[in-house]
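Intended use. Records like the one below are meant for learning the mapping from a protein sequence to its folded structure. Do not use them to infer anything beyond what is encoded.
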Amino acid sequence: MNEMPVIKKERHPLADIDRVVHAPARLMVLTYLYVVEKADYTFLMNLTGLTWGNLSSHITKMEEAHYVEIEKEFVARKPHTLVKLTEQGRAAFEDYKKSMRQILGNVSD
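Structure written out for the chain above:
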């Protein structure tokens, strides 16, 4: 029997993009966390326009991916939650930036 030759196609770079980072709300949060040491929920809510519940949901997803760490403390007897980018999260964000530069750099105007 004659077998058809297998043509190996190169996958589009977006096919392998990190979907945890790529989601718009999470990308906004990661962008801010990339440039600060830590941020609290109020700071992130004000910058992103996300609601408390929506922000919490996205942060949980990033925490499950080990991209952020949560620190809970009390300030004047009130709970205060801080979010910090992990080294793994920093690397994922940098990989994402590199991928997007490559993808967008190959697009002609």
